[in-house]
Amino acid sequence: MELMWMTMEDVRKEQKAGTPVIVPFGTVEQHGSHLPLSTDTLQASAVASKAAERVKVIVAPPVHYGQCSSTRNHPGTVTLSGDTLRSVARDIITSFAGHGFRRIILFSGHAGRIHMAALREAAEACVQANRDLKLAVICDLDLVKEVSGDLLATPRDGHAGEIETSRMMYLHPDSVGEPPGEEYPQLPAGQVVPDPENYWPGGVWGNPRAADAEKGRIIVERSAEALSKIVEALK
Ligand SMILES: [Zn+2]
Question: Which of 30, 139, 149, 222 maximizes the CB count within 10 A of its CB?
């Protein structure tokens, strides 16, 4: 069930039935020279929709913007601050809770530390204020690594690499350009620099050339299955 197509009456019925809600979170962020800026949003939305084929859950419209750090100066990345994202997440949870929804999953297609911390902090504040709430904050990349390790040729794959390129080849093949070569960020350990793009010019973390669409399909299916189990467990 996609919230964007539901009516007020549909929502009333599902709230009474105790149906849980997934809110996908994405980013507008560079994904190398070959993937579109909304890659995280598209993946999180697709995995959430496929989870909804397995378990009864409402999928809310995605939050298209997130917090991006080391990609912030690459062309096209548009970032929120951690404070803003925390407020957005808190307001969305509070609004669903106000309508009587008790089980809410924030599902992020982006794995950045500040981004994930903002979502988790918002959820912690909400659950502290309303102990009836059952909240989960799930990072899509963590799920993928848990369920798809056997498929991946690139052990340290992350951003715009084998995983994301494979998934986008499956989900949105027309949006995928020529995959660039393997790359990893070379940021000096622990330093906070004003020009992270100079240490990571291509914006890839992993190996896009190890990607293929069939691998992408399996990763999407397995992560959807894992997400549906998390929804079921949120009792
Ligand atoms: Zn991504």
Answer: 30
Does the residue 234 lie in any domain?
Answer: no
pTM above threshold 0.85: yes
Residue with tokens 């027309």: 174
Confidence of residue 95 (pLDDT cuts 50, 70, 90): very high
CA of 183 to the centre of ligand 1 (A): 15
Measured distance CA(115)–CA(178) in Å, rounded = 29
Q: Is residue 235 part of a domain?
A: no
Please give the distance, rounded to the nearest whole angstrom, from the Cα atom of residue 37 to the centre of ligand 1: 9
Closest CA to 40 of 61, 25, 26: 26
Domain with 122, as residue range(s), is: 3-229
Task: Please write the tens of the pLDDT for every residue from 107-118.
Answer: 999 999 999 999
In this structure, is residue 45 part of a structural domain? yes
**CA of 42 relative to ligand 1 center, distance in Å:** 9
